[in-house]
Specification:
By secondary structure, the chain is an alpha+beta fold. The protein has one domain: Phospholipase A1 (Outer membrane phospholipase (ompla), Chain C), CATH 2.40.230. About 20% of the residues lie in helices and about 40% in strands. The chain contains four helices and 13 strands. The protein has a twelve-stranded antiparallel β-barrel with strand order 2-3-4-5-6-7-8-9-10-11-12-13. Helix 1 packs across helix 2. The longest helix is centred in the first third of the chain and has 36 residues. The protein is elongated.
């Protein structure tokens, strides 16, 4: 019960921000219409907007790091030769684990004892906007996104250096900035649906679907995000090896019910921190990332993860992982 109450409260917060935006947008539109009707011939739109902002006590807020990233993306997001980054794109040539998950591979001959505790990892992530013009609110967007993560046993000698695990996450989401600016911040609301799968057959198959609401606050170089989700439940399996049904019925007990994240960028150095938490079990994970300039297109990237769910195959396996490599883009 506590989990549902908490998640509903977080979702209501996001919906309330959108409602505030709708009301303030309506008030602004009405004011602009009234002012333009009686305006002199040499009055500019900027003058009228300024008058309405003063009348409605709207304080202009400076765009933050995330807003500036979005503005930059809008210049090229419809260019057919440009893929817009979604999450971070990176390669970690070496990532080591305090306790690699061998048990899941016991049924594959030669794998369980041949897996190395250090491997390579990479992520590719992009998004594609659907609309050029606003749909419901000013500057809102509908996106399709795809993120692929792979863990590569490139250093193993007794097996054919396989990709130990690959996770695919297609998603559909709607994002809109709001007109709510508490304490001089900018706010954004996202709602979306995600499918997560490792594309494997039994007994290594893992997948689940979830709907989420995300509330983002930015101020200057800082960004904060709260993202609760609800899992779309699947039918229980009668046989662990059957293809249909739930591959991981207790996944939210380990991965969590929500995520809190924060990011800070200054002078090319970026720090991100993320916590996932399961309300009922107390399990979850923490992740700290740091990027720094290298030169040209490349960015230095370090990552520390501890807890459950770094990958789908490891969702109920606790471990601490550290990696270092390069990235192609920051979050901010």
């Amino acid at each position: 019960m506590k989990k549902w109450v908490w998640m509903v409260t977080a979702s209501v917060t996001a919906i309330t921000a959108a409602s505030v935006q709708a009301q303030e947008l309506s008030d602004m539109q009405q004011c602009l219409l009234d002012k333009m009707t009686g305006a002199k011939a040499n009055t500019t739109v900027a003058d009228v907007r300024s008058q309405c902002e003063e009348q409605l006590h709207v304080t202009p807020v400076e765009p933050g790091a995330l807003s500036n990233r979005i503005k930059g993306e809008q210049i090229t997001q419809f260019d057919p030769y440009v893929l817009t980054p979604h999450r971070r794109n990176y390669l970690l040539p070496v990532i080591t684990s305090s306790n690699i998950n061998r048990l899941q591979y016991a049924d594959i001959e030669g794998y369980e004892q041949s897996l190395e505790s250090y491997e390579a990892k990479f992520q590719v992530s992009f998004k594609v906007p659907f609309n050029k013009e606003s749909l419901l609110f000013e500057n809102d967007r509908m996106f399709f996104g795809l993120t692929v993560e792979s863990w590569w046993q490139v250093y193993s000698d007794n097996i054919s250096k396989p990709f130990r695990e690959t996770n695919y996450m297609p998603e559909l989401f709607y994002a809109t900035p709001t007109s709510w600016h508490p304490f001089g911040t900018n706010t954004t609301v996202l709602v979306g649906a995600e499918h997560l799968s490792n594309g494997r057959s039994q007994p290594l198959s893992r997948s689940w679907n979830r709907f989420y609401a995300q509330f983002i606050v930015e101020k200057g170089r800082f960004v904060f995000s709260l993202k609760p989700w609800l899992r779309l439940q699947e039918d229980q399996k009668t046989d662990p090896l059957q293809s249909s049904g739930d591959d991981n019925p207790n996944i939210t007990d380990y991965v969590g019910d929500y995520e809190f994240a924060t990011a800070y960028n200054s002078g090319g150095f970026e720090y991100t921190f993320r916590i996932r938490h399961a309300v009922e079990t107390g399990r979850g994970s923490a992740e700290l990332n740091w990027t720094f300039p290298l030169g040209g297109k490349f960015i230095g990237y370090t990552s520390i993860f501890t807890g459950y769910g770094e990958s789908l195959i490891d969702y109920n396996h606790k471990q601490t992982r550290f990696g270092i490599g390069i990235a192609l883009n920051n979050i901010l």
